[in-house]
Amino acid sequence: MAAGSAIQIPTRLPLLLTHESVLLPGSTMRTSVDSPRNMQLVRSRLLKGTSLRSTIIGVIPNTSDPTSDCDDLPNLHRIGTAALAVQVVGSNWPKPHYTLLVTGLCRFQILQLLKEKPYPIAEVQQLDRLEQFTNGHKSEEELGELSEQFYKYAVQLVEMLDMSVPAVAKLRRLLDNLPREALPDILTSIIRTTNQEKLQILDAVRLEERFKMTIPLLVRQIEGLKLLQKTRKSKQDDDKRVVALRPNRRINHGSITEDEEEEEDHDDVVMLEKKIRTSSMSEQALKVCLKEIKRLKKMPQSMPEYALTRNYLELMVELPWNKSTKDRLEIRAARIVLDNDHYAMEKLKKRVLEYLAVRQLKNNLKGPILCFVGPPGVGKTSVGRSIAKTLGREFHRIALGGVCDQSDIRGHRRTYVGSMPGRIINGLKTVGVNNPVFLLDEVDKLAKSLQGDPAAALLEVLDPEQNHSFTDHYLNVAFDLSQVLFIATANTTATIPPALLDRMEVIQVPGYTQEEKIEIAHRHLIPKQLELHGLTPQQIQIPQVTTLGIITRYTREAGVRALDRKLGAICRAVAVKVAEGQHKEAKPDRAEVGEGEDCKEHVTEDAKPESISDTADLTLPPEMPILIDFHALKDILGPPMYDMEVSERLSQPGVAIGLAWTPLGGEIMFVEASRMDGEGQLTLTGQLGDVMKESAHLAISWLRSNAKRYQLTNASGSFDLLDNTDIHLHFPAGAVTKDGPSAGVTIVTCLASLFSGRLVCSDVAMTGEITLRGLVLPVGGIKDKVLAAHRAGLKRIIIPQRNEKDLEEIAAPVRRELTFVLAARLDQVLNAAFDGGFAATARQEHLNSKL
Ligand code: ADP
C-alpha cells in the first residue's frame, strides 16, 4: 500500500468491554479478561481466528458499574477504539482468565448492535483516518497554531525527563516523527490522566477539539513535574522510566477517582504486608514474602507479574503455617466410631486401632503410612474418613488416578504462565490446618510421563525424614508436612512403584461375602439412602431377601458400590410414589365423595404394594410402607442381569469355569474351546497376555501326551489331537486384558471336555497353574476368587493343594457353603471337574501291555 493511503477497519467488529482503563488510538494497553462475555470473545475470535482481520476488535470503555456487570449487556458507550490484539496470555490461577495486549488503531462509532451473545458484535463506522506512516511527517490537516502550541508543550514535558533513559529518548524522537494529529491521543495515554479525562479525549472526534482538551492536561503535568523536581532535588532514580511521569499524587487534584482507586490498591498491599508480618509463617518464608512485597510495591499493576506476585503472597498468608486442630484420641471412642461406621472388615479395623494406639502412646507420626488395598467399593475411603473423625482432624482426599505430571504433586515453578501450587499445598490451603488427614486415593494409578514421575515426588511427601521441609516449586520455601497424617488407597499393589510401596504398610481389604453385604446394606446403605431421598422407614420396607436378590441378580462386585446405587434407584422410585401419594392425600374429600368407602377398600385390598410402577392405582395413595419385593425390583431395576448364566453356558462340551483375580476383585471366567478341520493350529482370542498364551500351549502339550491315557481323540478318532484339527480357545470379556498363569487347569479341563465330548460339572470352578508334567502349582488371590465363585452361586472349587492355607482367611459361612477340592496333579483336577470322574481307562492300560 502506498504511503498515505487510508486503511479501512472492518465494518463489523466484535466488542471487548473494558472496565479498568480507556484505550486511545496509538497506545497499547494490557487488560485482564475475566468476564464471560470477554472470555468468549477471546476464545472464539482471537484464539480461533487465523486471519489478521480476526485480530481486530473494538474496545469499548464500559462506563457502567463493574460490580453490577451481569448477563445483560450494559448500555454501551457509543465511541470506542478499534484495536489490534497483539498478544493473548492465558492463566488458570486463581481462576481462568486471559491477559490481552491490545494496540489502539483508530476511533469508531457504533452504528448498530448486531448481536449481543455470546459476545457483542456491532456495525461500526470508522471516525479517524488511519494511514500508513512510513516517513509520516506533519499532518496534511494543518491546524496551525494550535498544533504548534501543543507540540511545544509536549517537547517541554519530554525534555524535563531523563533523556539518558532509552524510552524517553525514543519518545522524544517520536514527537518529531509521528504525524501531529496522532500526538494528543498518544500523549494522553502516557501522562497521568484519569479514566474520565481519557474518555473525554476519546469522545473528542474533531482533531481541533482534541488538541484543545489535551493542552491543559500537558500543562498540568509540566507543573506537577516542576514541583516534584523542586522537592526531590537531585533524587532522580524514580524518573527513569516513562511510567514515572506520574507526578506527586497530591498535586493532581483533578484525578480524584483514579487516585482513590490507586490508594485502595495501595491500601490492599499495605494490608497484605501487615498480614504477612503478623502471620506465623516460617522465618525463611517471611523473608521471601517481604522481598516479594517490596517488589510488588514498585511494580505497575498492569504488569502480568503483579497479579502473579500478589496471588503468591495471598497464598502464603493463607497457608496454615502454624494452625492445627487439637487431636482428641481415645482408643475406646475410636473403636466405637469405626464400629458404628463400618460393618465387618475386622482385620482392617483392628490394624487401624493398633496404629492409632501406637500414635497415642508415642505421640508422634513417624511410622509407616497405611495403605488400604482392595477392590472398589469396599470402604477404603470411608475408613479414612472415619479415622479423621476419631482424631477430630480435617479430612481431605487427593485423587491421584491418572496423575502423570510431577508438578501435580510438587507445583509449577512461578516462572510458568498459569503456575500454581501442587495438590498437597492446595489441600492444606483448603482445609486451613497443618495437621489434616490426607487420603491419597488410587496410588496404584499414578502414571509416568515426560513431565516427570509423580511417584518420585510423592516419596518426598511421604518420607517422615524429609517431609518436614517439603518444598513445593510454586512456594519455593519449605513447608512442614510432618503433622499431616497420610493414608493411601489402591486397588492393587502390583502397579505401585516399589520405592513407594516400601514406605507403606499394606493392609488388604478383601471383598465382602453376601451375608456381609446384606448386613452392610441394612445397617448403613439403606438408612443413608433413605435420608438422602427424604424417606422414612415407615414409608419403605426392603426385606432381606430382596437385598439378597439385588446382590445376586443385579450386581456382581466385590464391594458394595453398585448395591448402593441400586438401593438409590429404588429409593428414587419410591420417593416419586410417596410424593404422588402426598399430593393425592392433600385432597382427600374428592376421593371419598367420588367412589365411596367400599370401592376404596376394595382397591386397597387388591392393590399389590409391590407393583409400584403400576399406573392403574395412581388415583390412590400407595399403601405404606411400600414393600419392595421381586416384582417391585423388576419394575424398578429391570429384568435381572445375572441369571442362570452359569448353567446355560455349560450346556456344551468345551466350556469350563476358571477363577481370575483382577484389581476390582475376583471374577469367574468362562473358557471356551472349539475344534475344526485344519492343520493343527491353535488360535487364542480374548486379549490374553503372554503368560496366559503359554499356559494354553502347556495345556495342549500335556493333553496330547496323555491323549491315549484318557481316550481323547480328534474328530477322526486319532489320538494325535492336532492331526488335521485346529483348536480355538476363547476367553470371553475380550475388552479386558487377561494374564497370569492361574488359568492353566481351566484350559486343560476345557480341552479335555472338548476332546472327550463330556460336559464339565456346572457348579465347579477352578484355578491353578500347571506344569508340563501335569503338576498343579499354587496361585495368588485365592480369597477374592473364592468369594467371586460364591457370588456366582458355584458350589465346588478346585484349588491347588499348596493353597490350602489360604482357605483359613475365608469367612466360615462362605466356607460352609462350598466344597473345596485340593489338587496336586492334573488328573485330580479332571476327576473332580467331571461327573463320575475322569479316570484313565483300563482299556488303555490293557492295550499298552499288549504292545
Ligand atoms: P472405596 O474407597 O473402597 O472404593 P468407599 O469408601 O467409597 O469405597 O465405599 C463405598 C460406599 O460403601 C461408601 O458409601 C461406604 O460408606 C460404603 N461401605 C463400604 N464398606 C462398608 C462397610 N463395611 N460398612 C458400611 N459401609 C460401607
UniProtKB/TrEMBL annotation:
It is an enzyme of class 3 (hydrolase). The active site is at S742, K785. It comes from the Eukaryota. HAMAP family: lonp2_euk. It is found in: Peroxisome matrix. GO terms for biological process: protein quality control for misfolded or incompletely synthesized proteins. Its EC number is 3.4.21.-. The keyword Nucleotide-binding applies. Belongs to the peptidase S16 family. Residues 585-611 have a biased composition (Basic and acidic residues). This is Lon protease homolog. GO terms for cellular component: peroxisomal matrix. SMART domains: AAA, LON. CDD domains: RecA-like_Lon. One of its GO terms (molecular function) is ATP binding. Signal peptide: none annotated. Residues 585-616 are annotated as: Disordered. Keywords: Acetylation, ATP-binding, Hydrolase, Nucleotide-binding, Peroxisome, Protease, Serine protease.
